[in-house]
Every structure is written in C-alpha cells, then in structure tokens.
Write a structure and sequence with these properties.
Distance between the termini: 31 Å
Shape: elongated
Oligomer: single chain
Number of strands: 0
Largest sheet: none
Structural class: mainly alpha
CATH topology of the largest domain: Serine Threonine Protein Phosphatase 5, Tetratricopeptide repeat
Order of helices and strands: HHHHHHHHHHHHH
CATH architecture of the largest domain: Alpha Horseshoe
Radius of gyration: 21 Å
Helix content: over 70%
C-alpha cells in the first residue's frame, strides 16, 4: 500500500528525477526565492516537495503548516502533509489530514487510499477494508482500488475475495506480471493447483522470466 501511495505522491508532484545534490541545490534556490517572496504559496509548495524528496519530513511538515495557516482548505498541502506524517509515524495527524480532504472532496481516491493505509498501520484492518470498498465503488475503472483491497484481503486470509480482486486488477492491467503472480499465489493458497499451473503456463508461454515463476511451480508440485 505504501508503494501505491508513494506512486500517487510522485504522480501528483510531477517532479523530475534528480540526485540528492541537485535536490539540495534546488532547495537553496527556492530558499533564496522565498526570501524575496515570503508569501508565495507556489514557492512553499515546491520547497516542501523538495523536502519530501530529501526525506526531510519535519521540514516538509513545517512548510505545509505555513501554507495551511493561511489556507486551511489547501488540499495539496493537506495531502502531502499526511504523507509526511506517515513517515514520522504520527498516524492520528495523518488521519486527520486525510479526513479533512475527504470532507472537501469525498471522491478523492488517493486520500481515501492513504486513510486506509493509516488505519492498517493503526491495526484497524476492518475499517481499512471498509474504506477500500468505497474506493472500488467510486472508482470501478481504477486498478489501484482493486490492488489495495486484494492485498489487504490476502493479508486477512480472505482468499476468495482476494482472488476476485486480483482477477479484476489483471483485467484492468493485463500486462502487469505482479498482479498475475498475486492471483496465482491466492489460487495456490486456496489449493487450486491445476488452475494455478494453467496460469503459470500462460505466463511462461508469454516469455515471462522463468526465475520469477520457478518458486510458484515448486509450490504446486
């Protein structure tokens, strides 16, 4: 789930890949620009984004607090601050930020995924699953909801439900080998070895690396 959330953060920030030194150079430039325009929200958002890239979670939180002090409904600042709070293990604060986003925009998929992940970290897996059910209902064409729900259902040993969701995920992203292997994993957990073998043979026939399939074949011998 954290991987999904990280991908969502990266996609929304649309920042270019840089080395740590390049990020630090960017930070110096932004600090100089902020000194000239201290109330420029865009500059503070860009600075906080660099703080996240450098894993400077506390500095990022400080930037988002500054923005939210003047605009408490800035959804961008709330979303990224929640992400930083997760890394700081301040789960209640992350939960509050995600909830504030959903009050303003109930269909915000990334915020609901993030909130579900926070509930999992807090040991509230049933609450997390309820949130993922809403994600799937609101965004039936998105693979992210099915993947997140299938992963949690697998962890909760709800294999029949997980099997359905992994199958739906593969329908939406048929070229994703990880989703297909997760589907096969659940088939094996359910004791459906013949079906698992057929799926493995399909992947093998498509040229999927044998090294990634070998462990699965061993499980159904």
């Amino acid at each position: 789930m954290l991987l999904l959330l990280s991908v969502a953060v990266t996609q929304q920030q649309t920042v270019l890949a840089q080395t740590n030194q390049e990020w630090r150079d960017s930070l110096n430039v932004l600090n100089q620009q902020i000194a000239q325009s201290p109330y420029n929200v865009d500059l503070h958002l860009r600075k906080a984004a660099v703080n996240l890239e450098l894993q400077q979670w506390e500095f990022a939180v400080d930037e988002y607090k500054l923005i939210l002090r003047n605009d408490d409904k800035n959804l961008t600042a709330l979303f990224y601050r929640a992400y930083a709070y997760i890394h700081l293990r301040r789960y209640d604060l992350a939960k509050n930020d995600y909830n504030d986003i959903l009050l303003e925009k109930p269909t915000h998929m990334e915020a609901r995924l993030g909130l579900s992940y926070v509930y999992q970290l807090m040991g509230k897996r049933n609450d997390a699953l309820d949130l993922l059910n809403i994600v799937v209902e609101q965004h039936p064409d998105s693979v992210a909801g099915f993947v997140a729900r299938a992963s949690l259902e697998t962890d909760m040993q709800r294999y029949e439900a997980a099997l359905y969701d992994w199958e739906e995920a593969t329908k939406r992203d048929p070229d994703n080998t990880d989703y297909q292997l997760s589907y096969i994993d659940v088939l094996i957990r359910l004791g459906r070895n013949d079906a698992a073998r057929r799926e493995l043979d399909k992947l093998s026939g498509r040229g999927v690396n044998q090294g990634s399939l070998r462990a699965f074949y061993k499980r159904i011998k």
